[in-house]
Amino acid sequence: MEKGTIQVYYGNGQGKSAAALGNAIRFASQGKKCIIIQFLKSETNTEYFEKLEPEIKLFRFERSKDGFEDLTEEQKQEEKINILNGLNYAKKVLGTGECDLLVLDEILGVLDEGIVAEEDITGALEGKSIATNVILTGQNLSEGILKTADNVLKIESEK
Prior knowledge:
- This protein is of the alpha/beta class.
- The chain has helices at 16-29, 47-50, 73-96, 107-112, 118-126, 143-148; strands spanning 6-10, 34-38, 56-60, 101-105, 133-138, 151-154.
- Strands 3-2-4-5-1-6 form a six-stranded parallel β-sheet, sandwiched between helices.
- Helix 2 links the parallel strand 2 and strand 3 (56-60).
- The termini are far apart.
């Protein structure tokens, strides 16, 4: 059994989520199961994901169609509960090894927003099944996530 890795794609450039999706497609083409959990993303057209099922499954726990930064304080409090449900689902997936690749898209943004602590994310990663691969995306990389990661890729815009 191969040991899974933890990869991080971060920075202010475009393409972090696309790179993670590319890896998911690569895994799926090898007959492996992938789960993508999106955080802090406004609702976008995700119909194309349906064509990738059952090998790639997409989950969004947030209910608002707007981006987190556009919500009222009351709406943000409701979404924080939904986001925590998403993180709890990620912990379950990591612990049970129910997929070969778990993408936590924009999870680093959840940390930036103060919705979860760094220890919540690193603790979830420590509980992962040995064979599960994980990709985390977001703009900013914390020291604890850096120490936990096996590979880190910084994506910056040139302007």
